[in-house]
Amino acid sequence: MAQEHNLKVKEQNGATYLQLPLFRTKKHAFCTRTGEKGVLDILGVPQGRLLTLRQVHGADVLVFDGDTRILTHPLPYDAVITNKKRVALGISTADCLPILMIDKSKKIIAAVHAGWRGLWRGIIERTVGEMIKTFESSPADIVAGIGPGIGPCCYEVGTDVTSLFQDSYKDAHQFIQKREGRQYLDLSRAAQLELTTVGIPPENIETIPLCTACREDLFFSYRRDKKAGRQLSFIML
Ligand SMILES: [Zn+2]
């Protein structure tokens, strides 16, 4: 499956952030509870050039065409793609998965917010589909990084959730764990399966195997803290 344990934990100017070597670009980061401000500066994101979304747990994909009005007025989407330079695509999470993608051949990037609802609604398939349709991207050229989210160690879910996946995914047993009569969802595993299903080679997928609920030292977690901050993940061409 996907590659793991290659992550680089960086600490600069009081900010801790994670990067994935597979991207082979410094212009991306999975930030932590120390915040993103310093990281955006360190990695050269110009002031006011962070695009975020009003994440609604849906599966709609925004193609950013350079209209800078949406930099100050986030729109209700859960994924964004662009071929524009000098704009960072950002996703905020606190248990859901941030997924960053890059196609270096076509020079396209994507950022995806994927909780169980988004995954179940097909956010990954929709995002890669849009990269293919709009930018003639080839899945074989796409590199994907799955950031820190809540792990199967902590993410207990009810039958209402598992039955939705079991009804529509033949591989659901690979990402639903059962322990002592309880059921746990492995979001990262589900995302990896979906990424490979749409044609991204397993060797092009890297994961950060850290659980946001377990790693209070690094991350905010909605499940753990109830009312929590969120950490930003972003990528820029
Ligand atoms: Zn955990």
Task: Describe how the helices and strands are arranged.
Elements: E1 8-12, E2 15-19, E3 28-31, H1 37-42, E4 50-51, E5 61-64, E6 79-82, E7 88-93, E8 97-103, E9 108-114, H2 116-120, H3 123-135, E10 142-146, E11 156-157, H4 159-168, E12 176-179, E13 182-185, H5 187-197, E14 205-207, H6 222-225, E15 231-236
Parallel strand pairs: 4-7, 5-6, 10-14
Antiparallel strand pairs: 1-2, 2-3, 3-15, 6-9, 7-15, 8-9, 8-10, 11-13, 12-13
The structure holds zinc ion.
The major β-sheet equals:
6 strands, mixed
Number of discrete domains: 1
Order of helices and strands: EEEHEEEEEEHHEEHEEHEHE
Q: Write down how many β-strands occur, each being a DSSP E stretch of 2 or more residues.
A: 15
CATH homologous superfamily identity: CNF1/YfiH-like putative cysteine hydrolases
Overall outline: globular
Report strand order across the widest sheet: 1-2-3-15-7-4
| Class inferred from helices and paired strands | alpha+beta
Given as residue ranges, the uncertain stretches (5+ residues, pLDDT < 50) are: none
At CATH level 2, the architecture is 4-Layer Sandwich
- Which small compounds were modeled alongside the protein? zinc ion
Mean pLDDT over all positions: 94
End-to-end Cα distance, whole Å, is 27 Å
The CATH class, by name, is Alpha Beta
Percent in helix: 10-25%
The number of helices is 6
Radius of gyration: 17 Å
Hey, roughly how much beta strand do the residues contain? Answer: 25-35%
CATH topology: CNF1/YfiH-like putative cysteine hydrolases
